[in-house]
Amino acid sequence: MEHWPDSDALQSARISPDKPYFPGQPKSLEGIALRSFWLGIALALSAVATFSTLLFSSSPLWRLPFFWGALSTFHFLEFWTTAKYNTRQANIDSFLLTANWPLYAIAHASASIECLLTKLLWTSRSWAPLYIGHILLLLGLMLVFIGQLIRATSMMQLGTSFNHIVQHKKNDDHVLMTTGIYGVMRHPSYFGFFWWGIGTQLVLGNPICFLGYTIVLWKFFSGRIKVEEKFLAKMFDDYVEYKKRVPTRIPFIP
Ligand SMILES: C[S@@+](CC[C@H](N)C(=O)[O-])C[C@H]1O[C@@H](n2cnc3c(N)ncnc32)[C@H](O)[C@@H]1O
User: What are the TM regions of this chain, as residue ranges (predicted)?
Assistant: First the structure.
């Protein structure tokens, strides 16, 4: 598809000092260290806020710092797994905070606002029995943990073949992975991201963002998989057979 730019062009566009991807985007190793430091602080503060609301009040607002903690963990792990298992590719974009800016930030800000408003304003108005809320919360927590685990595991397993930017040409160290978690599902890192995102909205108890996240994530991964597989089939003769044999396990994406 034409709208996917060449990966070299994308890389150079992203590291050009004249073209910051978002305000304050760091360009140096010190900047990367600082970004990790702030994500760590955000994570620690989120953990403290979550556990103190859980321990000292019955307020459902613990969901908000839990969401920010899950978000910080996700982005920190994006960088950490790239730096450890695909060191040459690690740069500031590996945090995945620069992709789809500012839409990504708007999505998470909307989720935070929806949660804050509904939990503060509509605390007494419940549209469903309490146990439904508990089931959805539990399901959301499971999806966040399992989604994160699958995402990080697949990044580790793919190693140097993993790239945040879809590759158009085969690099020397790129091997087709068809075993392990890639033998169970064809795109585990997208599967993990998809369910992680939906899980965060279940934990927040956000009906509007749940719907929005589901539609946007599904459309995004469905389009991306089509493009990615077109290039994978060109790069690897075995890909067509692999595609027939292993499903994506993402709903309505065969
Ligand atoms: C962001 S990674 C996502 C990998 C995979 N789609 C997933 O969800 O786990 C994108 C890169 O992984 C590569 N890739 C995807 N599936 C692969 C496989 N089974 N073996 C090797 N490389 C793969 C693609 O060429 C692309 O450059």
Answer: 37-57, 64-81, 101-122, 129-150, 193-218
* Domain membership flag for residue 254: no
Residue ranges in the chain assigned as alpha helix (H): 7-15, 29-56, 63-85, 103-121, 130-158, 188-204, 207-235, 239-245
In a domain, 157, yes or no: yes
**Number of structural domains found in the chain:** 1
Atom of ligand 1 nearest to the CA of 154: 9
* 63 falls within a domain: yes
* pTM of structure: 0.85
- Out of 162, 174, 193, give the residue to mutate to test ligand 1, the one with the largest number of ligand atoms within 8 Å of its CB: 162
| pLDDT tens, the chain, 254 aa long | 333 334 454 444 344 445 544 555 555 667 777 778 888 888 888 888 887 877 767 677 889 999 999 999 999 999 999 999 998 888 888 999 877 778 889 999 999 999 988 887 766 556 667 678 889 999 999 999 999 999 999 999 999 999 999 999 999 989 999 999 999 999 999 999 999 999 999 999 999 999 999 999 999 999 999 999 999 999 999 999 999 999 999 999 99
Question: Measured in angstroms, how far is the CA atom of residue 250 from the centroid of ligand 1?
Answer: 15
Nearest CA to ligand 1 atom 25: 167
Domain extent, residue 67, equals 7-245
**What distance in Å separates the CA atoms of residue 161 and residue 157, rounded to the nearest whole number?**
9
Ligand 1 atom with the shortest distance to the CA of 166: 27
Q: Is residue 82 part of a domain?
A: yes
